[in-house]
Design brief:
Elements: E1 4-9, E2 12-18, E3 34-38, E4 47-54, H1 55-64, H2 69-77, H3 92-99, H4 123-132, H5 141-148, H6 153-160, E5 170-174, H7 176-180, E6 197-200, H8 204-217, E7 225-227, H9 239-252, E8 257-262, E9 264-265, H10 266-276, E10 284-288, E11 298-301, E12 306-309, E13 315-316, E14 330-336, E15 341-346, H11 349-357, H12 369-393
Parallel strand pairs: 6-7, 6-8, 8-10, 11-14
Antiparallel strand pairs: 1-2, 1-5, 3-4, 4-5, 9-13, 11-12, 14-15
Amino acid sequence: MGSYADLSLGKLEVAWSKNELLLSHSELFQENCLLSSPYDDSENEAKKEWYELKLELVKDRLELLGYTLEYAKKQFENPSPFSDEDPLSISFEEVLKILKTVDVSKVTNEFSEKAKPGEFAPQHIQELIYSSRNLDFAFDHWDLSALLENFCPYSQLRVLAESPLNLELPVVWNFDEVVRNGWVERDAITHGVTNKFLIVTEGTSDSRILRKAIDLLRPHINDLFYFVDMEGGYPFTGTGNLFNFVKGLGSINIQNDVLVIFDNDVEGVQAMNRCLELELPKNMRIMKLPDLDEFNCFPTIGPNSEAKSNINSKAAAIECYLDNGGDAKIRWTNYREDTQCYHGSLIAKDKYKKAFLKQNEIVSGYDYRKLERILDSIILECTAIANKALHRTSR
């Protein structure tokens, strides 16, 4: 009969493979997701192993792999020509509406002649499902399989993550049987991604702060990003050098996924706009640090007096996004004729940077909200890169 491996959400199996034809799901998991337990046989000292991570965190990894709702919709509307099933006579939006109510923990694998209204999904949703097919049994595993049949396994997980009821359920990759029975070597079972996003910034401070922010605030996806090696000196300091780097990468049609991030200040915005005029590969995107409402009225000084000013696109370097205890202030310096505005910088910015970089864990009372906004923007841009790549390969 052979040995089986499967990927499941709670009790719901979304993918399986057999013997040496093992399907790898390494990209969904990190090293700390590997779990183990002793076998029931007390004479056997070996342990059963599997990977496990709750759906809420897997969802973020799926997005960065390109498995977005947009991609799921494309799959639903363009089912495999090799499928034996008739297409559902309802739209993707209707299916998503149904799935937003589904509690996978209540899935049963048995047919039931008597359905309890609302047991698995609200009665009106059950009626919608029944009207789309001749389903004369309770809404259970088989009904859910019918709704998910046009989706690949990762898109199934992504659409099921739209239901808040499922977010705490474990996504489990059970591979132990195929290893234990000799079909696959244990060394072949890995975790993590091979294709990562290269993040390029204006300088070492930006890179170090962003690396620390990802490690602290989004540890479940920190293996998906890497930065330029800064041990021998950062090669792209300043907007001019970074622009030339972008121009060079565009000319050689680089294959790596690259996100270039400029500061939210005068020079950064100017350089970003120059980069956006270039013909860049689809796997490369340009952004600046995001505008924030808090920066619309920020304490500044000079050249004539102190005032509250809008520093978005003028003086918001990355240190402005750190917790400053409410005493941060921008000093306006040189006037730029080309933009007809002053360039400014944060006073005592090294103090805020050092206080953040020395953190090894989340610090109670520290305000991470502005950093969270940066990370949200980075993830949005990287997801767009991954989504385009997935669309191209699935044609």
